[in-house]
Protein: SFRICE_027222
Organism: Spodoptera frugiperda
Amino acid sequence: MACDEWKRSQIGSIRTIGTLLVLPITGYISDRWGRRVALTINAFNTGWIGLVRSFVNSYEWFLALEVLESSVGAGAYSSCYILVTELVGPKYRVIAGATISTLFALGQVILGFIAWGVPAWRPLTQVLYAPQLLVVSYFWILSESVRWLMSKGRYTESEQILKKVAKTNKTVLSDKSLEALRATAEAEKNTVKPKEPWLVVLVFRSRVILSRCFVSPIWWITNTLVYYGMNINSVNMSGNGYLNYVAVAAIEIPGYWTAILLLDRVGRKPVLICAYWLCAACQFSFAFMPEGNEGIQLALYLFGKYCIAIVMTSVYVYTAELYPTKYRHNLFAFSSMVGRLGSITAPLTPALASEVWAPFPSVLFGSFALLSGLLIFTTPETLGTKLPDTFEDAEQLGKQKATTCALVSLCCQFVGNMAGSVRGSGVGSPRMELDTLLVQELGQFGRFQLRTFLLAAVLVMLVAWSNLEYIFTTARISTRCLISECEDEPMEFAPSWLVNAVPPGSTEGSFDNCERFGNTSASRRQFDSICPSQLFDQDTRLPCDTFVYENTDSVVFDYGLACDEWRRSLIGTVTTFGTLTALPITGYVSDRWGRRVALTINAFNTAWLGLTRYWADTYLGFVLSQFAEATFGCGLYSMTELVGPDYRVAVGAALKTCFALGQVTLGMLAWAVPNWRNLTLVIYTPQLLTILYYWIISESVRWYMSKGRFDESEALLKKVAKVNRRQLSDKSVEALRHTAEEKLRNDLKVEGSSGEPWLVVQVFRHKPILVRCLVSPVWWVTTTFIYYGLSLNAVNMSGNKYLNYIAVAAVEIPGFWTAYYLMGTIGRKPVLTGAFWLCAVCQLVYIFLPQGMYAAALLVYLIAKFAIAMVATSVYVYTAELYPTKYRHSLFAFSSMIGRIGSMLAPLTPAFGAQWFAELPFVMFGSLALVSGALIFLTPETLDTTLPDTFEQADRLGQLDQENKT
C-alpha cells in the first residue's frame, strides 16, 4: 500500500464503523443476558479475532477481521464503564468515570511503548491480543449488575450481591432497607405507564430542546474527530513516532482531571468554550507554524490534545444535564451515536493531508473546535441548577437560576441593611477594618478595582520588559575565528571550506566558536581549491585572534564579548543586584512620600535610564546603566490593596499572568526588532508615559491612614463607592477612622516601650520558627534560581531562540493557575513537593536526553518551567502562612531577600556551562529542586488552618488544627 494513503486510512474508518454496529449488538446481549456476559463475550471476542488477524495474508481478510472484531468485541469499554459506575455512589461517580478515562489513556501510553519495543505488526498483534484471552475468567471473577438483576425480577440474587458488597466494605446492611429496595423495584415494574407521543414528536414540539439536539451532536462530532484525529496523526509528525504517540496519549490524563477540578468551580460553559477555543488556537498555530520549529509544534500539539481531553470529560457531564430525566439517556445516546461520525472520519485525515494539503487536518480540527465553542453560547449554564425532570423544566433551564439569584440578591441586600441598622445601634466604640468595609459596602472587586487592576497589569508587563530585556540585548552570538588566509569579500559566516579550518562543535553540523586549527607549511597557491584541508594541522588548536560574527544584534558584537562568557553573563547579575539595592530606596520613598509617588518615580526612572543605554558605547557604561536602572527604577508597590480578601489571591495570580504575558510580548518584540539598540528604543520609549500614572491612579488608603490623613482617605473611599455604585455609610467611615486612630496610638506606645526582645532573639527561642527561617530561604533561592535560569537558558537551546523563549514564558500561565486551584484542593505541601520534584525530574531527564531530540528536550524544558511556575505562586502563600501575624511581613521579607541570591546567580549559569560542562546549570537546578522538595517535609500543612497570631500558635501550627478536628 505504498503511496496508497486512502487504502491504508480506510482500515481505521472501517474499524470505527464496526464500533458503531457493536452498540445495538452489545446492548441486546447486555439487556438479555446481563452486563457480565456482555463484557466477557466482547473482551474474549476481541482477543481471539485479533490473534487470527496476525495470520492473514491479504488486505481483504485483514479488513474483514477488523470489522468483525470491532462489531462483536468493541463493546467491552462501555460494558466495563457501566458495570463499574453502577455500584459507585453518586458522590464518586464522576471521579470513577475520570479514573476509567485515565486508565484508557495509560493503556494508550503502554501501547506506544509496546509498539516501540515490538515494531513488526504480526508479533505486535500477538503480544497485544494473546493476554486478552484470559479475560474469559472475568465471568467468574466479576459480579453481575445489581440494577440489571432487579430489572429482571431476580431479587434474591441482587440481595446476595448487596450483602456481599456490605460484607466486603465492612458495613451493615439492614433487612428493612433490602425489603424497601425490593418493594420500590416491584412497584416501578408494575406501574402502568400512560401512552405518550414518540420522543421525536416531543422534541419537535419544543424549540429549545430541538436546538440542543442539533448543537450537542456537533460537539460530539468535534470531540471524536479531533481526539482520534490527533492520536492518528501524532505518529506522522517529525521525530520519534512512538514517543510522539506516548506523549499525546499521556497528556490526556491531566486534561481529564483539570476538567474535574474546573467544572464545579467556574461552570460548564466557560470550561467548554475555553477548551474548544484554546484547542482551535493550537490547531491553527500548528498548521501555519514555519518548518524547523519541531519543538514548538509538539508543544502546540500536546496542548491541543490536553484541551480536547478537557472537552471529552466536560461534554459528558454537560450534555446529560441539558435534557429531562425521562429521556436523558435516549437524547444523550443520540448525541453520542451521531458523534461517531467524527471517529469514522478521523482515520481518513492522513489521506486528506497527503492528497489535498498537509496542514488540512489541523485546519479541519481547528474549524470544528471554533464552531463548537461558539455553539456553547446557544445553551444555558447548568452549574448549580437542579436537573430537569420534564421538557418544561429543561426549557426553563438557566432562566430559573437567574430569577432565583436576583431574589437572593434582594433578600441579602435587605438582610444586610437590617444588620447594618442593628450594628449601628450598638453601644460602645465601633470598630471597622478596611477588609470588612470592602466586603460589606464598597465591593471586593468592582469597577474601581478593575480599573486599578488594568493599570497595574500594563505596568507589570512593562516591568517584565525592563527586568528581562537583557536576555536579548546581551544574547550570545555564534562566532568563529577569522581565517585570514582563506577569507574573501564579501565574507560568509559558514563557507563550505570552514570544516577544514575550524574544529567541530558539540552538536552535529556545528563548529567551535572560539578556536581554529593551526597552519601547516603548505601554501594556498599550491592548491586549486579555495581553502583545502592540507593548509591546516588538525592536531593543533589555537584561540581566535579576530572573530567573525553571525550577526550584530546584541552587545556581544559591539563590546567584543565573543568567547568571554563571564563578562557577558555578569551583566544580568549586576542587573539583578540592582533590584536588590532598590528595595530599601523604594521602601523609604514609599513610606515618606506615598505609594503613588514611589511608583511614578520608579516607572519613569526605568524609562529614561533605559533609553540612555541606547547611546552607551562602552561595556562599563552599559553595565553602569543597567545597575542604575535596576536600582532606581525597579521597585513597585501593590496596586491591589483595595481588592477584597476573597479575590486577593486570584488577582495576585492574574498579575503573575500579566508578568508572563509581558515576557511573551518581549520575546515577540525581540524577534521583530533583533538589534539591541533599536529594541531598547522600542521597549523604553512607551514607558515615558508612565509619568501620567501620578494623575491616573489613586494613593493608597492604608498609607493615608498610617499617616493620619483621614480626610483624604475618606474622600478616596467615597470615590471608590461612587465608581462601584455602592453606598458607603457615615457610620462605617467613622468606625474605620476610629480603628485606624487606635492603631496609631498603639504603635506609638510600642515605639515608646523597650520591653519586647528583638525579633532575632525571639526566633532563636522558638525551634520550629528557627527551622522555618532556615528552610524557607532555601525554597526562595531555588525558586528564583530555576525560574530565571530556565528563562535565560531558553535562548541558548537549539531551534528558534525567540520561539523557545516565548514558549517557556507562556507555559508559566497555566502553572500559576494550576497552583491557584490545587493549593485549596489538596494542600500547600503536596503542591510544593510535587512541583519541586517534578521540576527536578525534568532537569535530570533533560540532561540525559540524546542530542538531536529537540522536540523532546523542549517538551521536558517546558514541563520544568510549568512546575517552577507552580512553585513561584505556592511559595508566596505558604511562606506567609508559616509565621505569626505581627512578624509575618518581616520574616517573609527575609526569605524573599535571601531568595534574590538565586536570581543573581541565574544569569551566570550559561558561563558555568561554558566553563565546566554544558549540563552543569541543569544539574544545579535539579539538585536544588530535589533538596527543596525534601525540605517541605520539615514544615506543617497550612490548608484550612487559622493563621497564627503569636509565636506559640505558630509553633503548634498543624497540631492545633488536628486537635480541633479531634
Strands lie at 479-481, 515-519, 536-543, 547-549. The domain at 1-142 is CATH 1.20.1250.20 (Growth Hormone; Chain: A;). The CA atoms of residues 476 and 796 lie 7 Å apart. The chain has five domains: 1-142, 200-405, 447-470+566-755, 479-520+531-550, 761-965.
